[in-house]
Amino acid sequence: MDRSQLLFKTLVECYIRDGQPVASRQLLQAADLPLSPATVRNVMASLEERGLLASPHTSAGRVPTQQGYRLFVDRLLTTEALTDDAVSALEGGLHKGQSPRELVEKAAQSLAELTRHAGLVMVPRRDLADLRHIEFVRLDERRLLAIVVCANGDVQNQLIQGERVFTDEELVQTSNYLNRHFTGKSLADITRSLLHGLQDDRLRLDAMLRSTVELAERAFAPRPTGDYVLTGEASLLSLAGTGGVDRLQELFTAFTTKRDILHLLDRCQQSEGVEIYIGDESGYAPFEDLTLVTAPYAANGRVLGRLAVIGPTRMAYQRVIPLVEVTARVLSRALSSSDNP
After folding, report:
1. For 40, which of 70, 221, 229, 253 is 20 to 30 Å away at the CA?
2. pLDDT in tens, 271-296
3. How far is CA 326 from CA 70, 160, 278, 323, 329, in A?
4. CATH class of 127-219
């Protein structure tokens, strides 16, 4: 690490810690290098010309820019490993015996408490759950209730209604067929397998298979929009203190409607490991003053969703990144355990 990089790294760390613009004299003292104040000022001016630092109008000190944070995170950051006690605390809160929803809620709460930022965890997509048992209950002539019991203990009730009237025999045959041939497979895989079967001309003429496909498609249909659990969003209220009231209102509206944030998380659904979006890198206007640190979580090797920490760009990256990574790993283990009671 050369002199310029060391001074830049030290400045970012000071700003993250104190939240105040860093002056040359303070930087010289913090870096503890045998340099003159003039040399430090020249380096800071050079870093500003490169777009890595900025000078607030009210201060002679410098602060990191979005580009500066990106350089810091990608090339200069030294993360802090979680202590054994911290990992044990996470494992104690996320353990076998809790429902998937309880695990998701606890993970979001843990992220918020440990980082002091907003913690967000996507609720697992219902069509990725594995089937344990299904049955159909008739509510009236044209309305059915599909009761889907998943391997993780979740029970999903899906209302089925339409012009087609299914006979009691069709309902029993369909549930027996699905339970016999597809227990242990994901709801999405079941639907794909049944639709693939209809491509066979011989099977297409099978009335029972046609009924099975029609009922299964409706029973296992994914929700039109996903969902997530969000905790600790009050930590973002500090944005209002810097003149960001309008941005804050926009952000909380986004939290309420959920659609755009879910779309943002879906964009990186297949990415492995931790992803970090600083400022406008997310392409999402309400996050222009924020950083999103996100990682996927899985059960038995299948990615179910992502969890994230949302906070100001001036966050303690060295702590937040490993916390997100470890929480995703612990949640994945807990969900895998709950799939195999």
Report:
1. 70
2. 788 999 999 998 888 888 899 999 99
3. 22, 40, 21, 5, 5
4. alpha beta
